[in-house]
Amino acid sequence: MHQSNIAQLKKNVAPFEKTDTKSSIRQTINTIVPLLFLWYGAYLSLSVSYWLTLPLVIITAGFVIRTFIIFHDCCHQSFFKSRRANDILGTITGVITCVPYEQWKQSHSIHHATSSNLDKRGVGDIWILTVDEYLAAPLWRKIAYRIYRNPLVMFGIGPFFVFALQYRFNRKGARRKERLNTYLTNVLLVGLYALLAWAIGWQAFLLVQVPVFFISGLLGIWLFYVQHQFEDSYFENEEEWSYVKAAVEGSSYYKLPRVLQWITGNIGFHHVHHLSPKVPNYNLEKAHNGTPPLQMATTITLSSSLKSLSFRLWDEERKQFVSFKEIKQIQASTGAIMDALHSQKTSLEGK
């Protein structure tokens, strides 16, 4: 993309970066208030039937996702004009979603700065190996990678590992502010959960909170996964990498039904968000509709996004994701070529 086009693209998106305090307050109310009532309703439904509780739990988990989008905007300082307001609401919503505000803000900023950069993988992203890296890896690493990329592990064990375990500890070299915020989040979580378990009984608490926690965690990981793991995504080494291309070509437009778009806080317009993290979530669709070049981003739907479950490795030659099955075919083809070359060489030497 030419430099002038990049400048024009950023200029077109700039008007949508303005935060509207009324919209932010309205979204906070229409997200957290229903979340609290739904959680309490799920608890009350336990006395009727758990079959009634389960639908309420699923809807409640959806509102946890919507709460996370508010948390996410606070991390980018795009939800309120005031840094302090963002930090306070970010910490509160971080407790609700089990994510420490300062820790996640730091790792997520690195994710934005390095997304789709093959030379800067490893912080705030999904573990991705290229085809060549996988083929050259020792057996133990191949096994570890296959386990990690297995959907049952990523979306089954992943929510508990990431949200219940990983986020409870600080990263190595974390600043004092970040460490203290993680400790504060952990203390508030323990206090909140202990209070709820005391108020309604630990069995009732677990019957409601565990599925809410798991479903929201699963959906959160899925959204993060699918919006960067599509067939013709964008990945380059440092010397060829472009921030704008990583945003527009390496992040998808996840076209969801209106209800799901609302519950996920418009995060489906992920290409817009990666281009300009300062655009609050309630302006993402406006930015997409008002900026024609952004409408050229790869569009995925609920049905087409399921295909990403088979994507395992990035093929640098073909510039697309491939499955483990395709790797076997590549290996077989390479082996056949090598055998043919060896036979030809032997034949020529014999002559």
Describe this structure in words.
With 351 residues, the chain is mostly helical. Helix content is 65%, strand content 3%. The strands form two sheets. A three-stranded mixed sheet has the order 1-4-5. A two-stranded parallel sheet has the order 2-3.
Keywords for this structure?
single chain, 351 residues, mainly alpha, 3-stranded mixed sheet, two-stranded parallel ribbon, 16 helices, 5 strands, globular
SSE arrangement:
Elements: H1 3-13, H2 21-45, H3 50-75, H4 83-97, H5 101-114, E1 129-130, H6 131-136, H7 139-149, H8 151-165, H9 176-200, H10 202-226, H11 243-248, E2 253-254, H12 258-263, H13 270-275, H14 284-290, E3 299-300, H15 302-305, E4 313-315, E5 320-322, H16 324-350
Parallel strand pairs: 1-4, 2-3
Antiparallel strand pairs: 4-5
Helix pairs in contact: 2-3, 3-4, 3-10, 4-9, 5-9, 8-10, 9-10
Which spans of ≥5 residues are poorly predicted at pLDDT below 50? none
Q: What is the rounded Rg?
A: 23 Å
Q: Tell me roughly what share of residues is in helical segments.
A: 55-70%
Distance between the termini: 54 Å
Characterize this entry briefly.
The chain is 65% helix and 3% strand.
